[in-house]
Write a structure and sequence with these properties.
The chain is α+β, with helices and mostly antiparallel strands. The chain has a domain of 65 residues: Arc Repressor Mutant, subunit A (Orthogonal Bundle), CATH 1.10.10. The chain has a two-stranded antiparallel sheet with strand order 1-2. The protein is globular and about 45 Å long.
Length: 111
Amino acid sequence: MSSLYDLMERPKDPCERKHGGNEQSVLAFQHLADRLSHDRAQVYDFICRAGLAGATCKEFSAHMGKGQNHYSGRFTELSAKGLILDSCRRRDRSTVWVSRNAVLPTDGGAA
């Protein structure tokens, strides 16, 4: 499982192999990478604040005033890192995501 440090980790360029290190492409992705990390942290914070009720990409996108396509990749990244979980619920035909910390004990499960 990933840590909260991963929220701000600079993403790797998914097109690097395709553009082969082209200077313009590298600079374009570097410019984008900072925003992706910031957006990922905002998504995670929103989901954490939602608690067990969770949040959907549609809800977050409406909150931010941008389309779902702008943020859906951040939900995928957080899920892949194990920081958010699919609650197996749907709201308005969208997956409801919850923070891993909202559903799993943070003290190692000791009672």
